[in-house]
Amino acid sequence: MTVCVSLPANAGHDESELSSSYMSNGSQLVSASLASRDAIPCHPLGVKPSGNGLTAAWDLRTAIGTFNILPDEILLMLLEYLDSASLLNIGCTYCSHLFSDTLHRPFYCAHISLDPYVNKIPARNQITRLPNLSPEEFQQSWTDRPFILTEPVKQWPVFKDWSTEALLSKHGDTEFRAEAVDWPFKTYVDYMKNNEDESPLYLFDRNFISKMGLKVGQPDVEPDAAYWPPPCFGEDFFSVLGRDRPDSAWLIVGPERSGSTFHKDPNATSAWNAVIRGSKYWIMFPSSSTLPPPPGVYVSADQSEVTSPLSIAEWLLSFHAEARCTAGCIEGICGEGEILHVPSGWWHLVVNIEPSIAITQNFIPRSHLTAALDFLSNKADQVSGFRKDVDDPYSRFVERMKEAHPELLEQAMQDLEKAKEGKKRKWDEIVHGKADEAEDGEGGGFSFGFGDDGSDVEVP
Ligand SMILES: O=C(O)CCC(=O)C(=O)O
Ligand SMILES: [Fe+2]
User: Fold this and answer.
1) Can you tell me the distance from the alpha carbon of 458 to that of 456, in angstroms, rounded to the nearest whole number?
2) Do residues 383 and 302 lie in contact, with contact meaning Cβ atoms separated by under 8 Å?
3) What pTM was computed for the model?
4) Angstrom distance (rounded) from CA 374 to CA 17
5) Which ligand ends up closest to the CA of 343?
6) Which of 64, 188, 265, 414 has the maximal Cβ count within 10 Å?
């Protein structure tokens, strides 16, 4: 790896105020726009990027004696063994002449402008916007395509009533889950307004309906409903599981820059995500057994582990340009009062471009029943969101579907079998050669017959 030094990060600061970056190809870093670099303030403790050390007269690192042989990443791990008082002391120590990308990069990522990434979306990538869709239109043409609806959310009482301030006054003392912590809403809002984190803590609560005493349901059935799924997303086969269904609805609150790194939604469900306040930038990719994951995302063979840059900003800096040019890329901004459809199996990364309040719900539409059954049966180790005492989600789902929708289940099971057979045939072709070629002894030798049958069904 080569250290590269770019133009001054902050014109007008002392001569060592350079920004640097490691690039594997050794070329000079000129990628970040002037506008975004101009916005990066100085590190509050005076830490500078590693590249600045190249021209510095003196380097504070030499002051740590024998520890100087250890890379910054290991030193940071050692610091984790300090008690909180010592950590606070270090956290208040001004470090002029300390040059460390490990320390500076998260700070840099926390301050890049999101504008270059969320603006100027190429027309071919733009997500489709529609006023509304009927259940029939959705089922016919849209279950495998992302889109934004502009009308339905604007009818919801929560669209009229909810704001950070309104929620503060009603639910300030209510605890909501934000990643690993349960915080009173007022504590979270305080954090949200004052943090400068690279990856801000994200409020993501699956019990908000009961915690907030909300009623949910179509307004003709539930006149006091706070919101209701738009009718096109009404069909949801997980509802046959009643109270045994996996988690399905979340309240999502976060400051600018908070969001979700690349993932597919759980249990092969589809989802809708409604923005009540603020706005979100989405970038999405279809997936299939033959498509690679999005740029910068690496998946284990059984898809159980997804590795990508830890922070959204890091991914944007490193991979957004390539992603934008990748076939299948869909991008869009879901604004206040709009709702976005995430089809089953699609990769997506989401970043709040303003402080946002959203509700999301996951569901199984008719056309993805087979995918959900496949996931529950063949990826049982990756199934998530069920209560611990629901010990065999697949069997329970099949049982309840048999009672509620026997014909649909029968059809989905047949499709699943067919898909498995298709894969088996391919497997046999790979291992044993194509039957016709093997028999007639000609045909130019063996060829790998990969083709996408659109399914991720595993060979059992
Ligand atoms: O609003 C967001 O951050 C996206 C949430 C999301 O993708 C999810 O809940 O699966
Ligand atoms: Fe998601």
Assistant:
1) 6
2) no
3) 0.85
4) 55
5) 2
6) 188
Q: Residue 109: which of 352, 284, 315 has the closest Cα? A: 315
Please tell me whether residue 449 adopts helix, strand or coil conformation: coil
Q: Measuring from atom 5 of ligand 1, which residue has the nearest CA?
A: 260
pLDDT value, residue 428: 65
Rounded CA separation 409/247 (Å):
22
Best substitution site from 350, 351, 384 to test ligand 1's pocket, by max atoms within 8 Å of Cβ?
350
Ordered by start, the domain boundaries in the chain are 115-365
In this prediction, residue 431 carries a pLDDT of 59
Given the CA of residue 204, which atom of ligand 1 is nearest to it?
A: 9
List of residues 6+ apart from 439 with CB closer than 8 A? none
Q: What CATH class has 115-365? A: mainly beta
User: What is the spatial distance between Cα 208 and Cα 356, in angstroms, rounded to a whole number?
Assistant: 16
How much distance in Å is there from the Cα of 154 to the middle of ligand 2?
22
| Residue of minimum CA distance from atom 9 in ligand 1 | 360
Within the chain, which residues score under 50 in pLDDT?
A: 1-36, 435-460
Q: How far apart are CA 99 and CA 59, in angstroms?
A: 7
Nearest to 269 by CA among 235, 306, 231, 307: 235
* Residues 270 and 363: beta-carbon distance below 8 Å: yes
Ligand 1 atom closest to Cα of residue 280: 1
CA 433, CA 445: separation in Å to the nearest integer? Answer: 9
In this prediction, residue 310 carries a pLDDT of: 82
Question: How large is the greatest C-alpha to C-alpha distance in the chain, in angstroms?
Answer: 79
Q: Pick from 360, 361, 362 the residue to mutate for probing ligand 1's pocket: most ligand atoms within 8 Å of its CB.
A: 360
| The two structure tokens encoding residue 284 | 């999405």
Task: Give me the torsion for CA of 149, 154, 158, 162, rounded to 10°.
Answer: 100
Q: 């298709």: which residue's tokens?
A: 422
Lining residues, ligand 1, CB within 6 Å = 250, 252, 259-260, 265, 271, 273, 280, 348, 350, 358, 360
How many C-beta atoms surround the C-beta of residue 279 within 10 A? 19
